[in-house]
Amino acid sequence: MFGGPRHSMGPRQMYKATCSDCGKECEVPFQPTDGRPVYCEECFSKHRKPRTSRGGY
Fold first, then answer.
1. Which candidate, 46, 36, 39, places its Cα nearest to that of 18?
2. Average pLDDT estimate for 10-22
3. Which of 28, 35, 53, 57 is the most buried (most CB within 10 A)?
């Protein structure tokens, strides 16, 4: 089922990485790619663009 709960697919594979900002070891749910930054959870939240509310609906 599209958009269903992830837990039905079993545990997600995690990959070890080093945060591009703070240098801390972390785990991410995707295979890191050379040339693309990887952020730990704390640094990722700093880099993430805030969601804009789409009022008027």
1. 39
2. 93
3. 28
pTM of the model: 0.64
Q: How far is CA 2 from the centre of its chain?
A: 20
Task: Report, as an integer, the average pLDDT of 19-38.
Answer: 95
User: Would you say 12 and 3 are in contact if contact means Cβ atoms under 8 Å apart?
Assistant: no
pLDDT in tens, 36-47: 999 999 999 998
**DSSP secondary structure letter of residue 23:** -
**Pairwise CA distance, residues 45 & 10, whole Å:** 26
CB-count burial class (<10 Å; 0-12, 13-18, 19+) for 10: exposed
Q: What confidence score (pLDDT) does residue 1 get? A: 46
